[in-house]
Amino acid sequence: MLAIRGTVWYHIKVYCNAADTPQRLERKRGAAGRSSNGEDEEALFTPNGACDGAADAGLCRAGGLRRAEGTGTIQLPDGVSFDEKKYPDVFGFIQIPNATQCAISKGHYLAQSPKSTKSSTGYDDDYYLQRDLDGKTNKAGSLYIQAYYNKSDLSDPMTVIYGHNMANRTMFGGLQSYGETLKFDDNAVLYIYQPGRQLTYKFFACIPYDTSHILYYHDFKDEKVFNAFFEALGKAASDPKYKSDTNQNAFYSAEGCVNVDKTNLPQAGDKVVVLSVCKNGDDHHRYLLMAKLVEDSSAPITMTRGEAEAAGIPADRIQDKAAADAAAAAANISAVEDAAANKTDTASKTDTAKTEHKG
Q1: What SS3 class is residue 251?
Q2: Alpha carbon distances (Å) from 307 to 38, 43, 264
Q3: Of all residues in the chain, what percent are helix, strand and coil, respectively (each to 5)?
Q4: Please, which pLDDT band fits residue 304 given cuts at 50, 70 and 90?
Q5: How far is it, in rounded angstroms, from Cα 74 to Cα 51?
Q6: What is the rounded CA–CA span in Å between residue 20 and residue 338?
Q7: Which of 187, 156, 185, 193 is CA-nearest to residue 270?
Q8: SS3 115
Q9: 3-state secondary structure (DSSP) of residue 83
Q10: Of 275, 287, 292, 301, which has fewest CB within 10 angstroms of its CB?
Q11: Given a cut of 50, is residue 46 above it in pLDDT?
Q12: Distance (Å, rounded) from C-alpha 173 to C-alpha 157?
């Protein structure tokens, strides 16, 4: 009997990345046994954002996760803390360690646009375009997501993070040069930290795009839209003459600077982060660096109930997988129905008014 079934493990993307070799999975299996009554139904063990105690430390260990020595707690980069009172809009911290010529290698806080009664969307979506985290005017702005389109828990199929292309290589400055020469190996990663949580994303594409607003013109919760977008990316990577005739799938490979790992394109069910920055010396296109989630320290682990009990996992942290899957499916159906009820047909959005900011 396998303690962790490989297909299920991969499907829910629990600590599954290039570092998750069979040997590492075997060590994880070895941290658990089988209960005396022989139960082997699947269960979910939830780390709750951090691993507590000896049992958790063995089960939650995974390549790439920064944990404080001797504990299971996620270790934040030096000097990073989350002060909700001082910076209420900050929801995370992003770092690209191997972009060594850019300030983002040391990392930067992420903000979410605040609410606004003056906006038709209910949010001041570009509040941080030219403001620092204190709300003071600053041409460098901050790194941010738009609250109308993205949730701060990074649960959307696609999350777009905006930042200026600063000449001094702060914010997202210098990332185009990084992306153009990026090798899609185990070092091609970015990390996003939240309190008690670390998310690891692996880059798979760096490519120009027109200035149309990606999230306005695409409903990525629609699997067909999601898959079509990345199918178009594959075509754009292969065809230097590729150009979209609409505001959808508007990659622009004719501009050059294309670097895509066509063997690792996302499919519906994946979660993607897009870093959106102005293309060097070009106000008519943006440069996108795209990365796929490969590891989430807060994701549940799948194993049999007997194995979870033998590993000493408290009963209140073990869920029946079948029941959890059914609840998730019901929630997904409800979300799809709500989206359908409120959806504006993206195919009809042919106007050019909704564009990305210049930066």
Answers
A1: strand
A2: 10, 9, 33
A3: 25, 25, 50
A4: confident
A5: 8
A6: 37
A7: 156
A8: strand
A9: coil
A10: 292
A11: no
A12: 26
Q: Are strands 158-162 and 272-279 parallel, antiparallel or unpaired?
A: parallel
What is the secondary structure of 261-307 as a DSSP string? -GGG---BTB-EEEEEEEETTEEEEEEEEEEEEEEETTS-EEEEHHH
Whether residue 359 contacts residue 219, with contact meaning beta carbons closer than 8 Å, is answered with: no
For residue 298, give the nearest of 126, 92, 120 by alpha carbon.
92
- The pLDDT score that the predictor gives to residue 60 is 34
CA separation for the pair 356, 216 (Å, rounded): 10
Q: What does the alpha-carbon distance between residue 301 and residue 41 come to, in Å, rounded to a whole number?
A: 14
Determine the Cα–Cα distance for residues 324 and 254; give it in Å rounded to an integer: 46
Torsion of CA 208, 213, 218, 219, to 10 degrees: 130
Residues shown for the chain: 359
Alpha-carbon gap, residue 19 to 64, rounded angstroms: 8
Please tell me the pTM assigned to this model.
0.72
| Beta pairing partners, 259 | 206
Residue carrying structure tokens 């609250």: 147
Is the Cα dihedral 314, 315, 320, 323 positive or negative?
negative
Both tokens of residue 239? Answer: 């065809």
Q: CA-CA distance, 242 to 350, in Å (whole number)?
A: 19
Q: Which residue has 């996760």 as its token pair? A: 65
Q: Is 241 exposed, middle or buried (0-12, 13-18, 19+ CB in 10 A)?
A: exposed
pLDDT tens string 167-216: 999 999 999 999 999 999 999 999 999 998 999 999 999 999 999 999 99
* Higher local confidence (pLDDT), 98 or 351: 98
